[in-house]
Amino acid sequence: MRMHSKKCYQLVSMALLISIATLSFADPPSSRRSITAMKRVKPVLLKSLAQSGLRWGAPVFVRIFKQSKELELWVRHGKTYKKFRTYPICSYSGNLGPKLRIGDLQSPEGFYYVKPRQMNPASMFHLSFNIGFPNRYDRAHGRTGKYLMVHGNCVSIGCYAMTNGKIEEIYALANAALKRGQPFFRVHIFPFRMTEKNMKKYRGSKWIGFWRNLKQGYDYFENKRIPPDVSVRRKVYRFQ
Q1: Residue 5 CB: number of other CB atoms within 10 A?
Q2: Mean per-residue pLDDT for 70-94?
Q3: 1 pLDDT band (50/70/90 cuts)?
Q4: Is residue 151 annotated as part of the catalytic site, yes or no?
Q5: How far apart are CA 234 and CA 240, in angstroms?
Q6: Which of 48, 96, 41 has the alpha carbon at shortest distance from 69?
Q7: Which of 70, 171, 221, 223 is the most exposed place for a label (fewest CB within 10 A)?
Q8: How many angstroms separate the CA atoms of 125 and 216, rounded?
Q9: What is the pLDDT of residues 141-171, one digit of tens each?
Q10: Is 159 a catalytic residue?
């Protein structure tokens, strides 16, 4: 009886581990549209990656800058990340500063991450991924909103909109990284490039305290070329 119980326990434990692994490394969803789009852009991306010494399916990292309307896509190269491309953002809504509540038509700022299930291959806006707003920091500050995306179709009511051609490339690279085992990719969103000059320029803004906190994460990556692990303690972003 004891042996039977032990064997049952082992089988249950094994099933649980398999279940956890399946959840952790689940492939992102797909659609006929996403498959067609990725097939279309993959040959060009493979050639460009090879020219940069980068690998298809390597982990990716995204940075967004509101003021200059730029989205950077970085790909891991050895132990650090190398910038692959800078894409122009077609449209975002609102002004510099964070999103505070549903309906304020403001695009978010902060530190987010995208898991496979947040990829949307059947988006109303061609292709998209949900950045994960509100995150823990947003919730700690009472900020509300949902369905905040990076997507195509070049229209925005709180999201970051790209042209369809650009989102196909970004989506394809992120999808490949997730399929190859990256459990999530980070999306860091800043009001502007957080140089000392810009921080001085905007020192009179009501958001300067928030931006100084964002700058800590910005500087971490600038110095190390590795995205920091981000946590929230006492309503403040922490980096390590």
Answers
A1: 9
A2: 97
A3: very low
A4: yes
A5: 16
A6: 96
A7: 223
A8: 33
A9: 999 999 999 999 999 999 999 999 999 999 9
A10: yes
Q: What share of the chain is helix, strand, coil (3-state, %, to 5)?
A: 40, 20, 40
How many other CB atoms are there within 10 angstroms of residue 51's CB atom? 8
- Residue keyed to tokens 């195509």: 152
pLDDT at 54: 98
Q: So what's the pLDDT on residue 39? A: 97
- Given the residues 90, 126, 141, 151, the one annotated as active site: 151
Contact 194, 223 (CB under 8 A): no
List, as one string, the DSSP characters of 162-224.
Answer: --HHHHHHHHHHHHHHHHTT---EEEEEESS---HHHHHHTTTSTTHHHHHHHHHHHHHHHHH
Backbone angles phi, psi at 231, to 5 degrees: -130, 175
CA distance 42 to 23: 27
- Amino acid symbol at 226: I
Counting residues of the chain whose pLDDT is more than 90, the rounded percentage is 88
pLDDT at 19 exceeding the cut of 90 = no
State the DSSP H helix or E strand holding residue 122, giving kind and residue range, or none if neither: none
**Which has the closest alpha carbon to 207: 43, 97, 102, 42?**
97
CA–CA separation, 17 vs 40, rounded Å?
A: 37
Largest Cα span, the chain: 75
Residue among 90, 126, 159, 188 flagged as catalytic:
159
| CA separation, residue 75 to residues 22, 53, 81, 114, 173 (Å) | 25, 10, 5, 15, 9
In which region does residue 147 sit, left (phi positive, over 0), alpha (psi from -120 to 50) or beta (all else)?
Answer: left
Report the pLDDT value the prediction gives residue 8, as an integer from 0 to 100.
36
